[in-house]
Amino acid sequence: MARNARPTAAKREREKNLNVRRQDKAAKRQDVKQRKASEPPPPPGIDPDIADIIPGPQPLADWQIEDVVEEAAEEATDK
To answer: pLDDT, tens digit, for every residue of 19-45?
Structure first.
């Protein structure tokens, strides 16, 4: 059987969405590029990837604190 050679409305819609997505990504890339250009350079001798890391034990995350509180409550009810 012969198929319809013309693009369907669904294909046009997909292509339109792809173009919009490409434009959004290009705009985001431009924003990041401008933001990086406007930031002052880091001081010499400091690695920006590890500048804010504090050695030693790290504080517990929120979900870990909740688990500790729940375990303490369970131990209190068991006694």
So the answer is: 999 999 999 999 999 998 998 887 888
C-alpha to C-alpha distance for 50 and 48, rounded to whole angstroms: 6
Residue pointed to by tokens 């050695």: 55
Q: Confirm if 34 and 26 have CB atoms less than 8 A apart.
A: no
Mapping DSSP to helix (H, G, I), strand (E, B) and coil, where does residue 45 land?
A: coil
Taking the C-alpha atoms of residue 21 and residue 42, their distance in angstroms, rounded to an integer, is 33
Instruction: Judge whether 42 and 51 are in contact, CB under 8 Å.
Output: yes
Per the listing, tokens 């990041």 go with 32
**pLDDT exceeds 70 at position 46:** yes
